[in-house]
Specification:
mainly alpha, Arc Repressor Mutant, subunit A, 2 domains, two-stranded antiparallel ribbon, 10 helices, globular
């Protein structure tokens, strides 16, 4: 009976957390040692692996989290399309960081917000407001994240340039780290370079036209 109660307690903790919980933290919350906690996790994971369950217990980001099974993805998307998109303040703050500083890693988001963002990032991924954008060429090669076309659609933006003024928290961070170039700045640089090339080509064509006129004269 005690084992079943602890198993239910573990499930409740994982459900309520909304983000990965590590074994040391779970052991402390459950009042168990680490081997006992690992045993419970294995038992719960096995129960969720049956076909009749819609959730699975997954080990992510050095912790454990309850997630929906991939086979039910289409049903979840249909639900999302029929519900009003409601994001928490934490989700909005994290989404703003990604929008203005993309591509950005979870660690970089956490450095700005000062709190863990695993659960929030997973939510934004499920809503398809953000997507993975490769890996950063630094130690550990962390995943980079960017906004999606759905992000533009949801917020009524034609392009990322239509974003409002940068929030104070991001402006302050940008001032502290001027060496970091955001996606928006990269787009502006690319357009500037494109404009320079176009001007050069146009000037060359005008020069050719003038030479042709002189020859004809």
């Amino acid at each position: 009976m005690q084992q079943e109660f602890k198993l239910g307690q573990l499930e409740a903790l994982l459900f309520a957390a909304g983000e990965p919980l590590g074994v040391p933290q779970l052991a402390e919350l459950l009042g168990l040692n680490k081997p006992q906690t690992w045993e419970l996790l294995g038992q719960l994971q096995e129960e969720y692996n049956t076909e009749k369950r819609g959730l699975e217990l997954r080990e992510v980001a050095e912790g454990w989290q309850l997630c929906t099974k991939a086979c039910h993805h289409e049903a979840i998307l249909q639900l999302a399309n029929t519900q009003e998109l409601k994001l928490s303040n934490a989700s909005m703050e994290t989404l703003a960081i990604i929008a203005y500083r993309q591509p950005v890693t979870r660690a970089e988001m956490e450095a700005i917000r000062g709190v863990k963002v695993d659960g929030v990032v997973n939510t934004l991924l499920e809503w398809e407001l953000i997507a993975e954008a490769g890996r950063k060429e630094t130690a550990g090669r962390p995943i980079l994240y960017k906004t999606t076309k759905r992000f533009l659609e949801v917020f009524g933006l034609k392009t990322l340039k239509d974003l409002p003024a940068m929030p104070d928290i991001l402006a302050e961070d940008a001032a502290r780290h001027p060496q970091q170039i955001s996606l928006l700045e990269m787009e502006e640089e690319e357009e500037a370079e494109s404009g320079t090339v176009t001007d050069t080509v146009a000037a060359a064509e005008d020069s050719k036209a003038e030479d042709a006129d002189k020859d004809n004269a």
